[in-house]
Amino acid sequence: MGRFKWLFLLCLVLTLGFVWFSGSYLHKSLAKSKVNLASYQETRTSEMSEKNPHVKRSEVLAEVQRTTKPPQIVNITQNGKILTKIQTVAEVKGNRTDLESSMVVGTRRNRTEATPKPADTGTPAPPTVPPDKRSPTWFLRDDTYTRSKCPSAIRKNPDKVPSGKFIPDIPVLMWSEHITPEEYARLSQFKMSYGWDGMSYEDVKNCLRHLNTSAHRYMFPGWAPDHAGCIRCAVVGNGGILRGSGKGKEIDGHDFVWRVNAAITEGFEEDVGKRTSFYFHSVNSMKKSAAHSRLSGFRDRLPPQSKDTVYTSISHGRRDYVYFDAAISWKPVKSGRDRSKVHEPPSEYGVKPASTKFRMLHPDFMRYLKYHWLNSSRGYGRFEGIYQPSKGAMMLLAALHTCDVTDAYGFLTADHAQYSDHYYEKDWQKFVFYVNHDFKMEMKLWDELDKAGLMALYRGNKTEATTSPKIN
C-alpha cells in the first residue's frame, strides 16, 4: 500500500502542474489574441472608410474614439523633416485624410498619429517656422529692383539713406508663388496688414492665384527690371497745398503718376494733372474716401478708371483678399461686410477688369516700412492695435523703392497749417492729427529725404488761394 500511496501522490503533483501550466499558457494566448484583434479592428476601420464610401461616418468615428490614446504632444516627421507639434488622436494606417476630411492621418511606418485638421478648408498642416524666421524683422529677398542702371536710383546712393532704414533687395510685390505652406506658416505669425494671422489658406490662395503672370512681379507695365534710362514717378497726395499750385502739367509729364484715396482730378487738372498710372488703396480707404468726397459735392465717386490705371492693394486683411478675388473673377462678394445684396460683382475697377491691372504689396514690405522707416512709438503699448503708417506714406515709400526718380506732391510739410486738409474741399478744413497715424514723423522723414536728394518734395507756392482764412 505504501508503494501505491507514493505513486498516487506523484500523479497528483504532475496533474496539478499540468493544470497550472495550461492555465498560464491559455491566459497569455487570450491576451495576445485581444491585442491582435484590436490592431486588426483599428486597421480595418481605416480601410473600410477608404474603400467603402457608404460606411456611416458615425460608425467610423465611434471606432476611432474607442481606440483613442491619451492626449500627448508629439512631432510629426515626414521624409526626415519635423512638420509640427500635435495632439494625438488615434494611430491608424495610411498617409491620407479620413473621416470626411475631419482628421489628418499619418503612417504606421513613421509611427505618426492623427491630429485635428485646421478648420479652414484647403489649409495644409503648417510646417514648423525656423527660429530665425519668427522675427518680425526677418524678410524675404528679391533682387528685381537692384538691377536698375539709373544713377539717381536709391540703390545707387545707399550712403544718402538714413542709417539702418534701407534693405536693397526687399520684396515689394506679392504674387501667386508666395502662397506655399511654408510661407503661410511664417506670415500667419503676424497680424494683418503685416501678415496673414486669422486668414485662411484658401482665402489667400484664391486671391493670389490671379497674380500669376510676369507682369505681377514688376511694378511697371512694359518695363524690364534692367531697363535703360531712369523711370520718373510723380507721387501725388491729396493735401490742400496743391490747390492753386499749377503743377498739373508737370505731374502728367512723368513716366508714371501715383495717386491714393480720393484721387480726384476732374476740375483740378491744372493743379494735380489728370493721369493716374497707379491707384493705391485698401477696400476700407477706397470706400471711406468715396464717402468723404461725396460730402464735398462729388457724387458717385469711383477710383480712377482708365486703360492705363493699375490698382495696387495695401491690404488690411481678409476683406481686401476676398474683394480682389471677386473683382478679378467678376463674381459677387459672398461673405463679409461687402457681401453683395444684389448679387453683382464689385464695380469700382470697371467691368471684368484684367488681372494684369492689379498689384498687391507684400506683407514683408509693409512690415519693413513699419519697423525700418516709420517705427513710431505709437506702434507699441497703448496704441499698438490701431497704429499703422498712412496709405500715402506707404505709397510714397513704395515709389522710392521702385522708381528711379521720385517727385512728391501734396504731402505734409512744416507749414501745413496754412493749407486746407484736402485740395478738393470747397470750404477750408483744418488738418487734424489722429492717433492711428504718426503724421509728424512722416512729415519729418519727407523733409530728410528731400534734403538728402533722394526725392523732390513740393513745398508750395504760398498763394492766397492755398492759405487758410485770416483770423481777426
TrEMBL record:
Membrane topology, record value: Single-pass type II membrane protein
Record keywords: Disulfide bond, Glycoprotein, Glycosyltransferase, Golgi apparatus, Membrane, Signal-anchor, Transferase, Transmembrane, Transmembrane helix
Transmembrane regions listed in the UniProt entry: none
A Pfam family recorded for this sequence: Glyco_transf_29
EC number annotated for this UniProt entry: 2.4.3.3
Region listing for Disordered, in residue ranges: 104-138
One annotated Gene Ontology cellular component of this protein: Golgi membrane
Entry-linked CDD domains: GT29_ST6GALNAC1_2
Location in or out of the cell: Golgi apparatus membrane
A Gene Ontology molecular function term of the record: alpha-N-acetylgalactosaminide alpha-2,6-sialyltransferase activity
Biological or metabolic pathway of the protein: Protein modification; protein glycosylation
Gene3D superfamilies named in the record: Glycosyl transferase family 29
Reaction equations catalysed: a beta-D-galactosyl-(1->3)-N-acetyl-alpha-D-galactosaminyl derivative + CMP-N-acetyl-beta-neuraminate = a beta-D-galactosyl-(1->3)-[N-acetyl-alpha-neuraminyl-(2->6)]-N-acetyl-alpha-D-galactosaminyl derivative + CMP + H(+); a 3-O-[N-acetyl-alpha-neuraminyl-(2->3)-beta-D-galactosyl-(1->3)-N-acetyl-alpha-D-galactosaminyl]-L-threonyl-[protein] + CMP-N-acetyl-beta-neuraminate = a 3-O-{alpha-Neu5Ac-(2->3)-beta-D-Gal-(1->3)-[alpha-Neu5Ac-(2->6)]-alpha-D-GalNAc}-L-threonyl-[protein] + CMP + H(+); a 3-O-[N-acetyl-alpha-D-galactosaminyl]-L-threonyl-[protein] + CMP-N-acetyl-beta-neuraminate = a 3-O-[N-acetyl-alpha-neuraminosyl-(2->6)-N-acetyl-alpha-D-galactosaminyl]-L-threonyl-[protein] + CMP + H(+)
This protein's record includes keyword Transmembrane: yes
Protein family according to the UniProt entry: Belongs to the glycosyltransferase 29 family.
Protein name listed in UniProt: alpha-N-acetylgalactosaminide alpha-2,6-sialyltransferase
Gene: LOC109473855
